[in-house]
Specification:
The complex is a heterotrimer. Chain A is α/β, with parallel strands linked by helices. Chain A contains 13 helices and 8 strands. Chain A has 2 domains: 112 residues; 116 residues, Rossmann fold (3-Layer(aba) Sandwich), CATH 3.40.50. A 4-stranded parallel β-sheet of chain A has the order 2-1-3-4, with helices on both faces. In chain A, strands 6-5-7-8 form a 4-stranded parallel β-sheet. Chain B is of the alpha/beta class. Chain B has a single domain, classed as Rossmann fold. In chain B, a hairpin with a 5-residue loop joins strand 4 and strand 5. Chain B starts with a helix and ends with a strand. The mean pLDDT of chain B is 94. By secondary structure, chain C is an alpha/beta fold. Chain C has 3 domains: 128 residues, Fumarate Reductase Iron-sulfur Protein, Chain B, domain 2 (Orthogonal Bundle), CATH 1.10.1060; 247 residues; 57 residues, no CATH class. Chain C is built from 21 helices and 10 strands. In chain C, strands 1-10-7-4-2-3 form a 6-stranded parallel β-sheet, with helices on both faces. In chain C, strands 8-5-6-9 form a 4-stranded mixed β-sheet, with helices on both faces. In chain C, strand 5 and strand 6 form a beta hairpin. The longest helix of chain C has 33 residues. Chain C is globular. Chain C starts with 7 loop residues before the first helix and ends with a helix. The model of chain C has no long low-confidence stretch (mean pLDDT 95). The chains are: A alpha/beta, B alpha/beta, C alpha/beta. At the B-C interface, helix 1, helix 6, strand 8 and strand 9 of B face helix 2, helix 3, helix 7, helix 9 and helix 10 of C.
Chain lengths: 245, 198, 458
């Protein structure tokens, strides 16, 4: 099984440890992982800002780098969702379609494709899950609080396999943190307020760590936590699942 | 006249037709549960009395609404002696000073406590709204489970010029989401759930 | 770009100047969202019901022409007079003419978002007619000379003390009394006097049934009924999209509407107006005002399914923290943000961007409008039509150049991180909106790509 590792631009530049944890976790689980070099970005920052027509370059690069692989896996629900919904390249539509159908966010790849039912990981801490909207409502990583449907959560299932880890209950299980791509700068006041409120929910319920499937949300929350000089830290789910005994 | 231009624009722009969904799956079989009906009305701020004879109405009103002076009963049998001569006046404005109106309801809906009333029975449409307090008499045999059953079985066709589902007393939560009973309509709702003894 | 109003982001920033108030606003609306959840969970077939409602509305969009004709024919047979208005101006003119025929100078209106959309009240005021809004929340904002901030809870932004103050000033209640029960009783007295004196009543319409020519109006207060039944002339104003095919379809919508809106099983009153009462005139004004145009926009026509429950506002994390007035439109929140650009794309170009695209709105919508996807699509249309700020466009073009060329991306990323490490003040300053209330990420020495090159075989 050949798995292409998709490391979104801001993870590559600012959170390489998340990329390393993702790669190492997939390798531990027996995947033959390739990292196509020269990859840049899924194009979402432009598309969500209303400039989808400028994303041809990103789309072409993406198809060139990831065509012909069995699976493409990335540690970001948001970027994966963008590719799933919007990757089209004229003249390479077949390859683009293959990618759209074969791209997975890390947690869903672990649960749905690798069908992981145990992990050798230990993380003796109180952890709150931040359900990032695009992963949750877009990719369906977890049941959404708005819907009348049976509960499930792929990230939660994985985290429950980690020795010593205690999940904290939140008052609002899946409210948006306010990152929202360029929303975080163009609507700075609301964005920060949303982030502060999410953090307060985790802190009030005793979380030592906030984890999630999207580094973008975590970066936003981390920025606020650090400004507040809080002891609470953020970690991508890959970093916890990869933490060795 | 804009009628033709609006209709032309709609005809040009409307999408392809799609079939209507089948609503039968939402129907329930059997009658509605009077206990569930009662419970919902109570949560809506209404009061429910189960009676087996109309004669029970008078003492209940005397006990629970002792201040009601001007009482209108649309059926003589509900409250012998209450006013029934009420069909004259300025388009219903005269009923502003009615303390309590007792009216018949055609049927109730168990899922939401709503009771169906039409102008066939109440004659003056404004009565159940303008009266200070409202009481509705409905038979426990006439409870349907859901709104789907109501429209399918009871009111597939309109039975008058005006019909209304009433569920509880008039209320508002417009001030800081604090629930207050008695906005513009009746301040209280009493439901007499009538089950004649076999 | 010249706008009549400040943009959403700026108005939201002003709203956020008072954080305790934002918390209060957020908590109040979240409570309504929770009531909605609780009610939805009492119906196991809830999701099927939403699907059915969405499909009924889809059928309506595809048959709107015929349904409108059917409705008109049946309404006329019932004794109503049907008027057609192409836009807000024509709607207002029709209503004014009807009022002038009656010679009234003061009359009551129950809640109608359509008349808000058409700015009927100020138009009638210009012609010497005073409209008394009778929904308590609407009356409160009317006294405060403000527009409603929410389509179901018009004065949700107001604290009871402020309302007490308003009532003291306008209705003569004792100063300092802010008890909701007392204030409601005062309003009841005041508005009952208005109902009694009024000879004409305007109401909105929640649903209009093609099959029977009747209109259903839902209220909790009973104000639509108090107005309409006492009046000699009842004027019902409705958007053309309010049509539903048959009476039985009301079963679906009445189950969904109040549960979604306020978490009630049904509104106190669901009134079915078919024929005018004896001696009364019933006028129905059918209003297009951009709806037929929206019907032609394939990506956006589903917005016409809206039944105005306001659930998308209550759940929207942005709405709850920016307030209804920040949307500077009659209809605020997510649904307002996809309806408004159809009315005036330039004026409302900011609204589709006032969202994180979290998708909660689409999930609570009782008629399953793909609201967040339409927000995304409006962004594309607004940008294509040239209504985006030039500075933003320049930034996006620059971003595209960097991200389309792996070499340039690698170099720019390396330089960027080096600058951030070496001269943090370049990014950590007040001009960077990220930094105002957040720290920048700590830039690592090497990127993942650099690490991979060193640590894995090529």
């Amino acid at each position: 099984m050949k798995v292409g590792l998709f490391i979104p631009c801001y993870i590559d530049q600012f959170y390489p440890q998340v990329g390393i944890a993702t790669l190492s976790l997939l390798e531990k689980l027996g995947c033959d992982v390739v990292y196509p070099q020269g990859q840049t970005c899924c194009g979402q920052p432009m598309a969500n800002s209303g400039f989808e027509h400028l994303t041809h370059g990103c789309n072409e690069l993406f198809v060139d780098h990831f065509e012909g692989l069995d699976y493409i896996v990335g540690p970001s629900g948001s970027c994966v969702l963008h590719i799933k919904d919007h990757l089209h390249v004229e003249g390479k539509e077949q390859a683009a379609t293959h990618i759209r159908q074969r791209i997975y966010e890390l947690a869903e790849f672990l649960t749905d494709v690798l069908k992981v039912d145990h992990l050798k990981a230990k993380f003796p801490h109180k952890v709150g899950i931040h359900q990032s909207c695009h992963g949750q409502r877009g990719l369906g990583l977890a049941q959404m609080s708005e819907l009348v449907a049976a509960p499930f959560s792929k990230p939660q299932r994985l985290l429950q396999m980690v020795e010593g880890l205690e999940l904290v209950e939140l008052k609002r299980t899946d409210e948006c943190c306010g990152f929202g791509g360029t929303f975080c700068v163009f609507e700075e006041a609301v964005s920060v307020k949303m982030g502060k409120d999410r953090i307060a929910d985790h802190v009030n319920n005793g979380a030592e760590y906030i984890t999630g499937n999207d580094v973008s949300c975590l970066m936003h929350l981390e920025g606020i936590l650090r400004r507040q000089k809080s002891d609470v830290k953020v970690l991508h789910i890959a970093e916890i699942l990869n933490s060795s005994i | 006249m804009s009628r033709e231009s609006i209709l032309a624009a709609i005809k040009k722009n409307q999408p392809e037709q799609q079939a209507l969904p089948d609503l039968n799956a939402f129907r329930r079989t059997g009658p509605g549960d009077p206990a569930a009906f009662r419970k919902v009305i109570e949560t809506l701020g209404g009061q429910v009395f189960e009676i087996s004879s109309y004669a029970e109405i008078q003492p209940l009103i005397a006990e629970h609404q002792p201040d009601a002076q001007k009482i209108i009963s649309l059926q003589e049998s509900y409250l012998p002696g209450a006013m029934t001569e009420w069909e004259t006046g300025d388009g219903g404005r005269q009923y502003e000073h009615v303390d309590l109106a007792i009216i018949p309801g055609q049927f109730g809906v168990a899922e939401n406590g709503a009771i169906w009333i039409t102008d066939v029975e109440i004659k003056e449409r404004v009565l159940p709204f303008i009266t200070q307090h409202l009481a509705i008499v409905v038979s426990s045999q006439d409870i349907v489970p859901t709104m789907h059953d109501a429209y399918a079985e009871r009111i597939a066709q309109p039975g008058g010029g005006f019909g209304v589902f009433i569920a509880g007393p008039s209320k508002t939560a417009d001030i800081e989401q604090s629930l207050v009973l008695g906005a513009h309509g009746a301040k209280s709702l009493t439901v007499f759930l009538y089950s004649p003894k076999a | 770009m010249e706008h009549q109003h400040k943009e959403h982001s700026l108005l939201a920033e002003e709203f956020n100047a008072n954080e305790p108030r934002v918390n209060w606003h957020d908590e109040t609306l979240w409570w309504v969202r929770q009531k909605r959840d609780k009610m939805a969970w009492t119906i196991p077939e809830w999701e099927d019901l939403r699907e059915a409602a969405s499909r009924i509305k889809h059928n309506v969009l595809g048959n709107l022409h015929d349904y409108l004709l059917e409705f008109e024919k049946n309404a006329q047979a019932n004794g109503a007079v049907v008027h057609w208005a192409a836009d807000a101006a024509e709607h207002n003119k029709i209503v004014l003419q009807l009022l002038q025929e009656q010679g009234v100078k003061r009359m009551v209106k129950s809640k109608s978002m359509l008349t808000e959309e058409c700015h009927l009240n100020p138009y009638l005021a210009e012609h010497g007619i005073e409209v008394i809004d009778t929904d308590l929340g609407e009356r409160i904002v009317q006294l405060a000379k403000e527009p409603p901030s929410h389509i179901v809870l018009p004065c949700i932004h107001k604290k009871k003390e402020e309302i007490g103050e308003l009532f003291h000033e306008h209705l003569g209640t004792p100063a300092g009394n802010a008890d909701p029960k007392f204030l409601t009783a005062a309003a009841r007295q005041h508005l009952r006097a208005e109902f009694i004196q009024s000879r004409v009543a305007i109401t909105g319409v929640n649903f209009a049934v093609a099959e029977t020519g009747e209109m259903v109006v839902c209220t909790n207060e009973g104000n639509a009924d108090m107005g309409a039944h006492l009046a000699d002339v009842h004027i019902a104003c409705m958007g053309i999209e309010k049509i539903i095919p048959q009476r039985k379809h009301l079963g679906v919508f009445l189950r969904l509407l109040a549960r979604s809106a306020t978490g009630q099983p049904i509104t106190t009153y669901s009134s079915h107006f078919r024929a005018p009462k004896k001696g009364q005139q019933l006028h129905i004004v059918l209003v297009d005002n951009g709806r037929s145009r929206q019907l032609g926009r394939e990506d956006f026509r589903n917005s016409l399914k809206c039944i105005r429950c306001g659930a998308c506002m209550n759940t929207c994390p942005v709405y709850r923290r920016s307030g209804g007035h920040s949307y500077h439109n009659a209809i605020a929140g997510p649904i307002g943000a996809i309806l408004a650009p159809n009315l005036d794309m330039k004026e409302y170009a900011d609204l589709p961007f006032a969202s994180t695209l979290c998708g909660s709105c689409s999930n609570v919508c009782p008629v399953k409008i793909d609201i967040h996807q339409q927000l995304y699509k409006w962004r594309q249309v607004i940008t294509r039509e040239g209504y985006t700020k030039k500075t933003k466009a320049a930034g996006m073009h620059a971003m595209n150049i960097v991200l389309s060329k792996p070499g340039l991306y690698k170099t720019a990323g390396g330089i960027g991180r080096w600058v951030m490490r070496t001269f943090p003040a370049v990014v950590n300053n007040g001009l960077n909106p990220w930094f105002r209330q957040r720290e920048m990420p700590e830039p690592p020495k090497e990127s993942f790509a650099d690490w991979y090159k060193k640590n894995r075989k090529q």
